[in-house]
Amino acid sequence: MVSLKESLGKVTIVDFWASWCGPCRQENPNVVAIYKDLHSKGLNIIGVSLDKDASKWKEAIAKDNLTWTHVSNLKFWEEPIAAQYGVEAIPATFILDASGKVVAKDLRGAALRAKIEELLAK
């Protein structure tokens, strides 16, 4: 069990992805770099997987060097956390402020980094 409230940083990315999702896996190196650079400044990430095979999910976490907290109910598109956020396609990212309010979503690459840096500077 992971509590979102307990996992919040100054800024938190809730990242919906899956091992089988090509665009998700292509974006992972960017997210890893952002986390490496900004975690010490208050960035947290929670990865929510829409996988259904635990071994493939864990293998992708290790292979892509995703060192933050990960959760999954291994229910594919029936993932209850994804339903709560209204996720209908992945990758999907939700950027939360320190109080847990969604302040941006579905940013990638340089736009994701810029938004995180802007929020951390506040």
TrEMBL record:
Any stretches that span the bilayer, and where are they? none
Do you know which InterPro entries this protein is assigned to? AhpC/TSA, Thioredoxin-like_sf, Thioredoxin_CS, Thioredoxin_domain, Thioredoxin_ResA/DsbE_sf
Which GO biological-process labels does this protein carry? cytochrome complex assembly
Q: Keyword set for this entry?
A: Cytochrome c-type biogenesis, Disulfide bond, Redox-active center
Q: Does the keyword Disulfide bond apply?
A: yes
Gene3D superfamilies documented for this protein: Glutaredoxin
Location in or out of the cell:
Cell envelope
Naming one, the record's GO cellular component terms include: cell envelope
Pfam families per record: AhpC-TSA (PF00578)
Q: Which residues form a coiled coil?
A: none
Q: Which residues form the Thioredoxin domain?
A: 1-122
> Where does it primarily localize?
other
Know the name of this protein? TlpA family protein disulfide reductase
Organism equals Flavobacterium agrisoli
